[in-house]
Amino acid sequence: MLSDDIKLDDSEPFLVTSDQFSKLDSVKENAFTLTVNGRIYDYHNEIWTKKSNGQLHRWYVSINARYVR
User: Fold this and answer.
1) Measured between alpha carbons, how far is 56 from 69 in angstroms, rounded to an integer?
2) pLDDT for 36
3) What would the pLDDT profile of 13-65 be if each residue is shown by its tens digit?
4) 48 in Cβ contact with 56 (< 8 Å)
5) What does the alpha-carbon distance between residue 53 and residue 35 come to, in Å, rounded to a whole number?
6) Rounded CA gap, 25 and 66, in Å?
7) First CA to last CA distance, the chain
8) Is the whole model's pTM more than 0.85, yes or no?
9) Is 42 helix (H, G, I), strand (E, B) or coil?
């Protein structure tokens, strides 16, 4: 999640997974839910994004994880 003003090189991922087909399930005011069907190597459930006016916006992330080996 990046605004158009932020370069990709200046950011860090909030989720590192082997699932290339992760799915966005729902988005609410300041939260969203993902479904991941692969390994999760790194995950942060709170994301701070900078708006174009310089203010920070907090997002809460929930994951439905289903990894079956």
Assistant:
1) 39
2) 95
3) 889 999 989 999 999 989 999 999 999 999 999 988 888 888 988 999 999 99
4) yes
5) 31
6) 14
7) 29
8) no
9) strand
